[in-house]
Amino acid sequence: CESLVKLPCLNHLASLDSLHLEGCCSLKKFPELPKNISFLNLHETGIEEVPDSIEHLTGLEMLFLSYTRVKNVSTRISKLESLWLLDLSHCSIAEFPETPINLRELRLPGTEIEEVPSRFDCQSSLTLLDLSGTSITTVDVASLVIRFENLEHLKINYCDNLELLSEVPPNLSYLEAHGCTSLEKVTFIDQNLFEVPNGIFMIFSDCFNFNKDSIDNIEETAMFKVGAQVERWISLWESGCESQSLFLCFPGNEISANKFEFQSLNSSINLKIAPNWRIGGRFLAFAICLVADLTNCSHYKDTERICEYQLKATSGGNEKFKTKWSDRQWRDFESDLEFKGEHVLIMFNDNMVKKDKDYEEASFEFHIKGQNSWVKDRFDDIKVKKCGVHVFYVDEDQFGEMSNGESDEDQIDETSSDASDEDQEMCNIEEMSKDVSYVEEDIPDPIALRKRRKPN
C-alpha cells in the first residue's frame, strides 16, 4: 500500500480492535481511530508526528511507530493508561518521550536522543528500555531505576558515544551494552540495598575501552550476585526455589586470581575440595569463568556453554553432572550481535550447587558450541582457551541457627576456612603436582560479605 496517502476518519468503527498499516510510506497523517482500538502498527509509514488527539485512544495497548518520520510525540500520550508497549525505533525524535503510567516496554533504538533525563514528573511501570544506537554519553542507571522502579531490562548496544555507565543497581536483571566502543567506566550501587534477581544476564562485549577498575567492578559484582543466589537457593532448599542463574561477558583474556582460585590454561580443570571439619553438613557451590574467542559467534543461530563436571567422594564413589547456558533462555537477547576477539565469561546456575557427600575432588570439562544457521542439527566447537573455578562452602545448618539470633560472623566463614592451614597446604601441593594452578591467598566469599536475611 505504498500509494496510500490518506485514510478516511475511522472513529465510528467501534468494533475495530487492530489496524495494520505497516509499509504505507506515503501516509503522513496520524489516522483518526475509535477510542477502543488496542493494536496499531504504523511501522515504515510516512507519519511525522504523534498529535494531541492520541489521548482519545484510551483502549490502545500497543503502538508501533518504528522507522517512521516521527519527530514529535505529544505529551498527552502519557494519558493512555492501557498502553503497555511503545516502539519508536529509528525515528527522528530527539527528546525522551513522556511515558504512560502502565507502559512496560519502551523501544527507542536508533533515535536521536542524546540524554536520558535524570528527573521525571510521574512514576511508571516500565520494565524494558531500549536505547541502543543512540548518541547518549552517560547513563545514570540509578536515576532510571528511581524513575522506573520496575526496570529489569536495559539495552544500550552500539552507543558509540557512551563513556560512563554509573550506579548500576543489583536488581537490574538484564543489561546489554554490546559494542559501546567509548565506554570506559562502569560503577555499581551498594549491593546490599537491593534484592538480587533470580536470573541475571549482563554483557559488555566489544567494549574494548574499559579501564581496569571497571573490569574489577564487574567481577566483584558478579561474585556478589552469585553469592546471593547461592544463599537464596540453599535457604529454600527443602521448600523449593525459583531457578537461579547468572551470565556475564566482557572483553579480555585474563581470569582474576582473586576471584577464581583454581585455574587452567585449557578447557578442563581438576581441583581438591577442602575437608569439612565441622560437625554438621554443608553445601558446595561452583562459579565458573571461561576465556574464549567469540569472533564467529554471530554466525550461529544459538550458542551453548556447557559444563560437565564430576565429584569424587572419599569413599571412592563418583557423581557426574551437566549444565549449560544457552542464548535461547534469554528472550530478548539478539544472538546475531557481532563479536570481536577474546572475551571473559562468568557463569553460574543452581545446578552448580550440591549437598556435600564428603567429596574430596572435582573435575570440570567446558565446551562452547554454536548451532549452525545453515546446516540442521550441526554444532561447531568454539575453543575454550582458559577456565577457572571458585568454590563456595556453605554450612547446612547456618540458616536455622541464624533464626536463633546468632550473628553473620558466627555462621559464615571465608572460602578456605573449612580446612586447616596444614590441610590447605597439602591441597596446594597436590594440585601443583597435577599441573593445576591454585592461588594460596584467602579468597573472600561474597556470601560472607553481604548482610543476610532470615529465610521465610
Q: Care to give the gist of this entry?
A:
This protein is an alpha/beta fold and 456 residues long. The chain is built from six helices and 26 strands. Among the domains are: 113 residues, Ribonuclease Inhibitor (Leucine-rich repeat, LRR (right-handed beta-alpha superhelix)); 201 residues, no CATH class.
Please tell me about this protein's structure.
This protein has helices spanning 141-147, 212-235, 398-402, 408-411, 421-433, 446-449; strands at 18-20, 39-41, 49-50, 62-64, 72-73, 85-87, 105-107, 128-130, 138-140, 153-155, 164-168, 174-176, 185-188, 199-203, 245-251, 262-264, 268-272, 282-293, 300-313, 318-326, 342-349, 353-355, 359-372, 379-382, 384-395, 437-438. It is elongated. The protein has 456 residues and is α/β, with parallel strands linked by helices. The protein contains 6 helices and 26 strands. Strand 14, helix 2 and strand 15 (245-251) form a beta-alpha-beta unit. Among the domains are: 1-113, Ribonuclease Inhibitor (Leucine-rich repeat, LRR (right-handed beta-alpha superhelix), Alpha-Beta Horseshoe); 249-449, no CATH class.
* Alpha carbon gap, first and last residue: 59 Å
The DSSP helix count reads 6
Structural class computed from helices and strand pairing: alpha/beta
> Tell me about the biggest sheet?
16 strands, mixed
Report the sheet-strand fraction: 25-35%
- The percentage helix is 10-25%
Low-confidence stretches: 401-456
How many whole angstroms does the radius of gyration measure? 26 Å
- What gross morphology would you assign? elongated
What is the number of strand segments?
26
Calculate the mean pLDDT score and round it: 83
Region (Disordered): 400-456
Domain C-JID: 259-397
Domain At1g61320/AtMIF1 LRR: 104-194
InterPro entries: C-JID, LRR_At1g61320_AtMIF1, LRR_dom_sf, LRR_domain-containing
